[in-house]
Each structure stands twice: as structure tokens, then as C-alpha cells.
Design brief:
The protein is mostly helical. Helix 11 packs across helix 16. 71% of the residues lie in helices and 0% in strands. The two termini are 25 Å apart. The chain is built from 16 helices and no strands.
Length: 325
């Protein structure tokens, strides 16, 4: 509902402003629109794991890895959320009609959306496989927290550094292609964007193959009662199951990394109040989907188990909240 409201009430005005700026050779509003859709495409593959085909389901298909990956990608668009973002992405190409390089700019935008979608799908494959989570996410989390802590401690200087980084970001490359004076001037940013897309494509194929064929067939061994994440009481096992499910979601990780980064930066000096307030808002927004769609993570068989177990509705919601907390 919120996404539909944004597409109807906010997106048209942004596109009109972007079209006017593109006709004058400016790209500020266009880059903002491209960044927004990149973020949305990152979360499309993990929005509803029960609608699309997971790696575990695809292992039974008697076809090669390339076709399995195509089936996996197409199954994502069974979700209305993915279809809505796809329609919005096509509408967002309208400002490129007023750009100097209409065809190249539109093609670069489509390549950008495909790259963001591929990167989000690669992240979903990494989150699903426990082995990949430990091998990839742990080093990535350490590096991300360290960089974010350094940026928070440096204050205003970090804003200038972020602007320098944004100048070579994929959305900026798309805008550079669209406002290039000649086609030859658009070749370098377009080739750079294509190289990024090729790298993400290789990462997607590797992560998909590892998630499908790298999973062990041995049953998962239950955690001991003295585990750190074990919740005491009769709900302990169910809370543990919810923790394992939420761990596979991309929504909860960015907010957690930001909180850790701010905590590390606070050891070297108090960050500005606006930073703390912004982190609270970001964490709330990122956790909105798991909170409001807590039952959407369960398959029909798991929902039937909840109906069979001697639990009330408020007990199930309590278990969900404890697992997320």
C-alpha cells in the first residue's frame, strides 16, 4: 500500500522534475529516482521467499544450472511487489525522452535495474546458505562497520567523501550517459556500467550454484540448550526457529550494521543527534516488512503446525516478536 501510494503521489512529480532537469543537462532528480529504484530492486528477490522458487526446491529440477537460474529469476515476478516495481521502473524511463542520449540513457537505466536485481538475488542466495553467510557476510560486516564508524567520527568531512564516491556510482554513470554531448562521450560510462553488470552477473551465477549444490544433505543438528540465542521457557524452540528465519532476511542486516557502526563511533566521540535520530528511523523502516509480514515467512505446512500446536494467537505473535527482538 505504501509503495503504491509513493508511485501515485510522489513518483509523477519526481519524474516531471527529472524530465525538466534532463532537458537542461542536469541530473540531480534523475539520480534520486534511480537510487530509489535500485534500493527497491535489491529487496525484490527476498520480499516473499514462499512465492518464488527457492534453491532447495530447484534441486529437484532435471535441467542445467543456467536454466535453473532463469527459472529462479522468473519465479520472483510471481510476487505483486515485483510486478509493481517492474512497472514503476518502466515508467521511470520516461524522462530519458528529454535527454540528449535517449536510447543509450534508457538502455543504461535498464542495465542498472538488472544489476541491482542481480545483486539483490545474490544477497538472497548468500543469506539462505549458512556456509555462505559465515564465509561472506562476516568479513563484509566487519569492513562495513569499520568504514561506517570512520565516516561517522569524521563528521562533515565524510559528507564530501560520500559525494566523491557518489560521482562514480552506477546511477551517476547512467545520468552521465544520458546527458553526454556525443555518443562517443557516453562510451566510457556505459562500458563501466557494463563491467559492473558483468561482475554482478558472475557473482549471481556463483552464489546461485553454491546455494543449490553446495548445501549439505545431512539434517540440521539442533542447538544445545546453553546456546547464546536460546530463549528459556516452553517457547524456546519456536523462538529459535524464528531467529533462524529472520536471519535469512536482507531487511534486518543493514539496520543492524548501522547500529553497530554508530556504537563503535560513539567510543571515539558523541555523534550528532541527527545521526542517532536518522539511525532510529532507518532501523524502523527496514524492520517494517518483517514486523508487518511476520506470518508471510511461513509456508502453509508451518502455518498448519501452528494451528495444531496448543498455542493461542497471542502466543504465536509473542513468539514472532521475541524472535525478531
Amino acid at each position: 500500500a505504501l509503495l503504491g501510494y509513493a508511485f501515485v503521489a510522489i513518483l509523477p512529480a519526481r519524474l516531471l522534475r527529472a524530465a525538466g532537469e534532463l532537458s537542461a543537462g542536469q541530473t540531480t532528480s534523475l539520480e534520486a529516482v534511480l537510487w530509489a529504484f535500485c534500493v527497491l530492486w535489491l529487496f525484490v528477490p527476498v520480499e516473499d521467499a514462499n512465492v518464488s522458487l527457492t534453491s532447495r526446491h530447484l534441486r529437484a529440477f532435471p535441467i542445467d544450472v543456467g536454466r535453473l537460474l532463469i527459472v529462479r529469476m522468473l519465479s520472483v515476478f510471481c510476487s505483486p511487489f515485483a510486478l509493481l516495481i517492474a512497472a514503476g521502473s518502466l515508467v521511470s524511463l520516461w524522462p530519458f525522452l528529454f535527454a540528449r542520449q535517449t536510447v543509450l540513457g534508457g538502455a543504461a537505466a535498464l542495465l542498472l535495474f538488472a544489476t541491482a536485481f542481480g545483486f539483490g538475488m545474490s544477497a538472497s542466495h548468500v543469506l539462505v546458505a549458512a556456509e555462505l553467510r559465515r564465509a561472506v557476510l562476516a568479513p563484509l560486516a566487519v569492513v562495513s562497520v569499520a568504514l561506517a564508524a570512520v565516516l561517522f567520527t569524521r563528521g562533515p568531512q565524510s559528507i564530501e567523501q560520500l559525494r566523491v564516491v557518489a560521482a562514480v556510482s552506477p546511477p551517476h554513470l547512467v545520468s552521465a550517459v544520458s546527458v553526454a554531448a556525443t555518443r562517443s562521450a557516453a562510451v566510457i560510462p556505459l562500458l563501466t556500467l557494463a563491467a559492473v553488470g558483468a561482475a554482478v552477473g558472475g557473482l549471481l551465477f556463483w552464489s546461485f550454484r553454491r546455494s543449490v549444490f553446495g548445501q549439505s544433505d545431512t539434517p540440521v543438528v539442533g542447538r544445545a540448550v546453553d546456546s547464546v540465542l536460546w530463549f528459556p521457557g516452553r517457547f524456546g524452540g519456536l523462538v529459535r526457529k524464528e531467529q533462524l528465519e529472520f536471519r535469512k532476511l536482507l531487511d534486518v542486516w543493514p539496520g543492524l550494521l548501522l547500529v553497530v557502526a554508530v556504537s563503535v563511533a560513539s567510543l571515539f566521540g558523541p555523534p550528532p543527534p541527527i545521526v542517532r535520530q536518522a539511525i532510529i528511523v532507518i532501523v524502523f523502516v527496514m524492520n517494517t516488512n518483517p514486523i508487518m509480514n511476520c506470518l508471510g515467512l511461513n509456508t502453509s505446512a508451518e502455518l498448519n503446525r501452528y494451528a495444531i500446536l496448543p498455542l493461542r494467537g497471542r502466543d504465536v505473535l509473542l513468539i514472532k516478536n521475541l524472535g525478531l527482538a
